[in-house]
Amino acid sequence: MKKIGLFYGTSTTKTAAVAKKIKAAFEDDKVDIIPVENVWEKDFKEFDNIIVGVSTWFDGELPTYWDEVRPELESLNLKGKKVAVFGLGDQKKYPENFVDGMGILAETFEAAGAMLIGLTSTEGYTFEHSRAVRDGKFVGLVIDFENQQSKTDERVKNWVEELKKKFD
Question: Quick count: other Cβ atoms within 10 Å of Cβ 107?
Answer without folding.
Answer: 17
